[in-house]
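2024-03-11 09:14:02 DEBUG pipeline.ingest accepted 1 chain
2024-03-11 09:14:02 DEBUG pipeline.ingest length=527
2024-03-11 09:14:03 DEBUG pipeline.predict start
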Amino acid sequence: MTPNAAVLRLDAIAAALRRVSGWRRFAIAFAAGAGAALAQAPTYALPLMAIGYSALVFLIDGARASRAPARSGFAAGWFFGFGYFLPGLYWLGFAFMVQAEEFAWMAPFAVLGMPAFLALFFGAAGAVIARAKVEGWRRVLFAAGALMIAEYARGHILTGLPWNLPGQALAGTAMGAQTAAFWGVYGLSLVALLIAMAPAAGRGLVKGAGLMIAATAALYAVGAGRLALHPLAYRQDAFVRIVQPNIPQREKIDGDLWSRNYQRHIDLSAAPGPDGGVLFVLWPENAVPVIDEVPEGLAEVGRRLPKNAVLVTGAVRRETDAAGKETVYNSMAVVAETATGRKVAAHYDKHHLVPFGEYLPMSALLRRVGLAQLAPYDEGFAFGTGPKTIAATAGPPFAALICYEAIFPGRVYPRGERPAWIATVTNDGWFGDTSGPRQHLDQARLRTIETGLPMARSANTGVSALFDGAGRLVARVPLYQTGVIDNRLPAPLAPTLYQRLGDLLFWLMMAGVFALAYFPRRRLQKL
């Protein structure tokens, strides 16, 4: 096939996508969304992201020409979103299989219901794009902006779920995600959408693809330059020992095995520590139940762990008020040496809880239909007060994150404070050997790049990891392996632009995108 024939063939495909209607438009939209989802971990098929989002632009072009553009655009966007989230979030169903005898019947509702709900955001964006009076390459700018408003909304409404944002597809490497230090993951996602949609910008798919390749190369070149400016460096006064016990989830929640599981954590942590400096030992989320109520357990930690060790562990924490009412928190406990032995010197209570997994929204209503058993304990976990920096121990202060909290940009530590590193404890053992734990790791990398802070991450079944402040993966324990990471703690970088400005630069970028899409029309149409 000659080059000219290839160009004509590609342009014919674009024209066909604009003409398609009815169920075929929806089927193609679903397939385009599913293809775009494969750009995320673990496949990182980035070309499919470009194919998927460019196809969506052409499908909405067709919707714009229909009798009911808003309705047709909504349908195209919804089917694209459903196709995107179904393979992106299928792993949610695995959580219901851990206790299948009780909860397996709920799995189909979660696996289908969550993607169907999240797709509403894409549907709304599709309706707005289809009604917009923009043509040519300006419609791509408008489409990217409208989709990013939808993405920002799904990251915030009803506590938010910013999972698999477009920019997250670039977080498979530190180089691809470096510009998150400037404008955060939402800004990175806007850039990713503009690049992915470039082939649909007009004047032929081939020219658009060339623009896409050039923009991608520029993005990675900026990433490489920033990494070169911030070489990997370590502190001399602090070390981390990250423990991955690899306890199957069914065994982890078995009360008869708690003592054995606790001993496994200690056995993996008991090697002699380094000379000089403090050693932070990280255990994963809910590694131990109510550690401050078991003197024997604290005594065992005191006997077995190195003398210079500070234990940072996921734990359940209970409070009982004067009336005898018990409140339960999903917590991080910090066990340090005191004059009277090892004690819980500080704690952090998780403030961004998982709906249905850790607490029951609209509990009074849902209990009437028998759904109270979704949340742990009678009332579920209680909410903590917010992000926290822990400086009540030896060694540099750290920001505390528990599992789900690491997916939210801009909420890593309190404003006005600057910790030296991030300690993350998590348990992805609920989700099996799926894409979920791998996608979760990429979001952890993004938090390090956005803040310029290194992160030590302990996960029960993986992936445990140590990142530096530029998002480099210093060390890791693969999924479903037992292991320990022993390393010096990387040094923090200077505060990033994103850490100073938050999402302000992203919104300025959005304003620029919409301004270019609409004004001044005559001059832009001549370009």
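2024-03-11 09:14:41 DEBUG pipeline.report Residues 234-351+386-492 form a domain with the Nitrilase/N-carbamoyl-D-aminoacid amidohydrolase fold (CATH 3.60.110.10).
2024-03-11 09:14:41 DEBUG pipeline.predict end
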